[in-house]
Automatic annotation (TrEMBL):
<protein>
    <submittedName>
        <fullName>TRAP-type uncharacterized transport system, periplasmic component</fullName>
    </submittedName>
</protein>
<dbReference type="InterPro" id="IPR011852">
    <property type="entry name" value="TRAP_TAXI"/>
</dbReference>
<dbReference type="Pfam" id="PF16868">
    <property type="entry name" value="NMT1_3"/>
</dbReference>
<keyword id="KW-0614">Plasmid</keyword>
<keyword id="KW-0732">Signal</keyword>
<feature type="signal peptide">
    <location>
        <begin position="1"/>
        <end position="28"/>
    </location>
</feature>
Length: 328
């Protein structure tokens, strides 16, 4: 037959309509996957990332249809490369590393600019420690001249930071007896008297420094003064910081500086999605979960979300922060 009966045509139309409606519902409920690159499972990034992924996921009352997961990684540089390459929607990074990536400087010298890199939120500070032997008579950064100092291993963000700090006081690696050790071996050499001081970047208190302070005694060298004020004006990813008294045994309150742990994404991520993610991150339920879940979770606050940015905010995040009055 060339033509369907009226009954068959109506039936066909009904089925087609049902299929179309079903397809619309399916599209509306299609989950959006949002990976968060973190760090090693033994570090701070991974558990904090897990908490954030949990609170923003739709299944837990977060952003509808969003499935967020924390992914273990090699840290800041790896996360930025994953965002750049499209293998991750977001990731954590030190603010200094984010700045170098965005500007094609520092660790990213000669590798090109990651111009689409954007900040979702500043999460918490990562303090620059300058740890010295108690008997090394190092009272300021300037006193490092001629001393045996570990600047951290090649390729690390700490190495670049330590060079900047030395430079603020008119020093270079040639003015110290530089070594390039990870914090663990550097601490061992300090304990053995084979090293005078070393740089470390991380949240306080850190276990290795606490153990060293208890077993051998240490001093924390202040990173402060007009030299540092000038440096802060030049490098906006740094901020003033203070290690409270007795954070480490017998160590008084010490002024220093910090970089920030930041949550980054690509400018290509939809504005509405990032807006809703940030809105969910700072609601009352999420705040309670973050505070209960990890010591650093208590520091993830709306009031500090735009501190020490260094690179542009994602437009979706920027819209939310302006609505909340934390950004002009």
């Amino acid at each position: 037959m060339k033509f369907m009966s009226k009954t068959r045509r109506l039936a066909f139309a009904a089925v087609a309509g049902a299929v179309a409606i079903g397809a619309t519902v399916a599209v509306a409920q299609t989950p959006a996957f949002f990976r968060i690159g973190t760090g090693g499972t033994a570090g701070t990034y991974y558990p904090v990332g897990g908490l954030i992924a949990n609170v923003i996921s739709g299944a837990n009352g977060g952003v509808p249809a969003l499935v967020a997961t924390a992914v273990a990684s090699n840290g800041s540089v790896a996360n930025i490369n994953a965002i750049k390459g499209g293998s991750s929607e977001s990731g954590f990074s030190q603010s200094d590393v984010a700045y170098w990536a965005h500007t094609g400087t520092g660790l990213f010298e000669g590798k090109g600019k990651v111009e689409d890199l954007r900040v979702i939120a500043t999460l918490y500070p990562e303090t620059i420690h300058l740890v010295a032997r108690k008997d090394a008579n190092i009272k300021s950064v300037a006193d490092l001249k001629g001393k045996r100092v570990s600047l951290d291993e090649p390729g690390s963000g700490t190495l670049v930071d330590s060079r900047i700090v030395l430079g603020a006081f008119g020093l270079t690696e040639k003015d110290v007896k530089a070594e390039y050790l990870k914090p663990g071996p550097a601490g061992d050499r300090l304990r053995d008297g084979a090293l005078d001081a070393y740089f470390f970047v991380g949240g306080y208190p850190t276990g290795a420094i606490s153990e060293l302070a208890t077993s051998s005694g240490i001093s924390l060298v202040p990173i402060t003064g007009p030299e540092i004020d000038k440096m802060l004006a030049q490098y906006q990813f740094f901020a003033k910081d203070t290690v409270p008294a007795n954070t480490y045994k017998d160590v008084p309150e010490t002024p220093t500086i910090s970089v920030n742990a930041q949550w980054l994404t690509s400018a290509k991520q939809p504005d509405d999605l990032v807006y809703n993610i940030v809105k969910t991150l700072y609601n009352e339920k999420s705040r309670a979960a973050l505070e209960a879940g990890h010591a650093k979770g208590k520091l993830v606050t709306l009031q500090t979300a735009t501190n020490g940015l260094g690179i542009p905010l994602h437009p979706g995040a920027e819209k939310f922060y302006k609505e909340q009055g934390v950004l002009k």
